Amino acid sequence: MGAGVLIIGAGQAAGALAAALRQGGYTDPITLVGAEPLPPYQRPPLSKALLKGEAEPDSLLLRPAAFYADKAIGLRLGTRVQAIDRAARTVSLSDGSTLSWSTLVLATGSRLRRLAVPGIDAAGVRELRTVADAQAIRARLTPGSRLAVVGGGYVGLEVAASARALGATVTVIEREARLLARVASQTLSAFFATSHQAQGVTLLLGATVSGFEQADGAVSGVRLADGRLIDCDLAVVGIGALAEDALAVAAGLACEDGILVDESARTSDPDIYAIGDCTRRPVPRYGIRMRLESVPNALEQAKQAAAGILGQPAPRAELPWFWSDQYDLRLQIAGLPIGVAREVVRGDPAGKRFAVFHLDAENRLQAVEAVNSVAEFAAARQWAAAGQVLDPARVADAAIPVKQIPEAPAA
Ligand SMILES: Cc1cc2nc3c(=O)[nH]c(=O)nc-3n(C[C@H](O)[C@H](O)[C@H](O)COP(=O)(O)OP(=O)(O)OC[C@H]3O[C@@H](n4cnc5c(N)ncnc54)[C@H](O)[C@@H]3O)c2cc1C
C-alpha cells in the first residue's frame, strides 16, 4: 500500500474527488487537509438559503460526516498545509506534523479580493466565503437594518436579494457603470438592475468606495470617492476572488494567476493534480485557458483527477455552466460569450422569462443566459457545446417551440 492521495483543501472539489476515488475502487489511503472546521460543504446556499435562514449548516454538507469514516477517508480539519516538499513527497501542516503522499491534489479554492481602504477592518464590515461568514452576516440582518453591499457581482446581488427578503434596507455600490459588468451581457445587467430596484434596492453604479466610517467601534457608513456617505449598520464586500495558488507557486509548479492544469487536471508535475477555483484550465470548446469559479467546474475537474489517478481515460470535456438565484429569478448560463457577433433575445425581460443567445459571426451558438427559462437553457447547453448554427430570426420567434429552433434538415 502506498502513501496514497493527499488532498489540500476540503471544499467542493476535494469532497467530490475523495468520493469519486472510493467509488472508482481506489483502496490506498485518502486524506483531506482542510483549513475550515467543517467537512466538505456547498457554498452556493451561503448567499441564498442559509443567509435567509431557510437552511441549516448541516444541510450544506456534501456527505454526512460519517461517510468519511465509513469510506476510510481521513479528514484533518481546522488544519492548514503550510508547505509542499515535492522531492520528499510530504506536506507540512500548521499543527507541526508532516504527511506523506504518492499523489498530491491541490483543491485550495480561491480567496476574496480585499478592498484596500481605511476602515476595512471595522466591526460590521464583512466578506462572505464560509459558513461562519454567512452566520455572522445573518445575525446582523434584521428588518430595518441597513446593509451596504460593495460589489454588484453575483455574490453581492444574491446577498442583496436575501437581505431584502429579511426586511433589511439595501444599497448596492458598484464601481463599474453596470451590474455584473465582467460576467453578463448588457441585457442581463439591465434586467437585474431593474429587478433589484423593483424590490426596493438602491443601486449606486459608477461609485468607488474610498473608506468605511465608524461610530462606537463599528461601521456606520460607506464613504464614496465623490464624498457621498451611505449610512449602514453592516457592509458586505464582494469584489471578486483570486486563485489560492500560493502553495503551488512556492512549490515551483507552473502558475499564471491560478495553477496551470491540463484536461486531466494535471499540473506541471505529473504526480500533482489541481482542481476547482485554484486552477487555470483549458476550455477546449473555445480553445482558451481560463479560471472558472463554479460548482460545475469543481465537479468536472474532480472527475478528471479521479480518472487520472485511477488510470482511466480523461472524461469528455463539459461546457462551462453556472447559475444564480435572486428573488424569484433563476439565472442559468451555459457556455462562454467568446467571439460573439450578435445577441438575440428570446422571450420578454418584462415578464421575467427570457434568454439571451450569443451567436458568433457564422451564427454558431457560443453561450446562453437564461432567466426562468429551463427549456431554453437545457437545449442551448447542448447546442453551444456542439457549436450549432441557429437562425437568429427563429431564435427570437417565441412562437417556435425551443426544440424546433434549429431548422429541419432539407428533405
Ligand atoms: C457565497 C458564494 C456563493 C456561490 N454561489 C455559487 C452558485 O450559485 N453557483 C456556482 O456554480 N458557484 C457558486 N459559488 C462558487 C463555488 O462555491 C466555488 O466555485 C466552489 O466552492 C469551488 O470549489 P473548490 O473546492 O475549488 O473551493 P472551495 O469550496 O472554496 O474549497 C477550498 C477549501 O480549501 C481550503 N484551503 C485553502 N488553502 C488551504 C491550505 N493551505 N490548507 C488547508 N486548506 C486550505 C479553504 O479553506 C476551503 O475550505 C459561490 C461561492 C460563494 C462564496
How many β-strands, per DSSP?
26
Bound compounds, each kind once, are:
flavin-adenine dinucleotide
Approximate shape: globular
Q: Give a quick account of the main beta sheet: strands, pairing sense, barrel closure.
A: 5 strands, parallel
Unreliable stretches, pLDDT < 50, 5 or more residues?
none
Indicate the CATH architecture of the largest domain. 3-Layer(bba) Sandwich
Tally of contiguous helical segments: 10
CATH superfamily of the largest domain: FAD/NAD(P)-binding domain
Please give the CATH class of the largest domain.
Answer: Alpha Beta
Summed up, the domain count is 3
Strand content: 25-35%
Rounded to the nearest angstrom, the radius of gyration is 23 Å
Percentage of residues in helical conformation: 10-25%
How do the strands of the widest beta sheet line up side by side?
Answer: 3-2-1-7-19
Written description of the protein model:
- The chain contains 10 helices and 26 strands.
- With 411 residues, the protein is an alpha/beta fold.
- It folds into 3 domains: 5-110 and 242-310, 3-Layer(bba) Sandwich (FAD/NAD(P)-binding domain); 125-237, 3-Layer(bba) Sandwich (FAD/NAD(P)-binding domain), CATH 3.50.50; 328-404, Enolase-like, domain 1 (2-Layer Sandwich).
- The strands form 7 sheets. It has a 5-stranded parallel β-sheet.
- Helix 1 (12-23) packs parallel to helix 8 (295-310).
- The chain is globular, with a radius of gyration of 23 Å.
- Residues 8-14, 33-36, 43-44, 46-47, 80-81, 107-109, 128-129, 155, 244, 247, 276-278, 293-296, 298, 322-324 line the site of flavin-adenine dinucleotide.
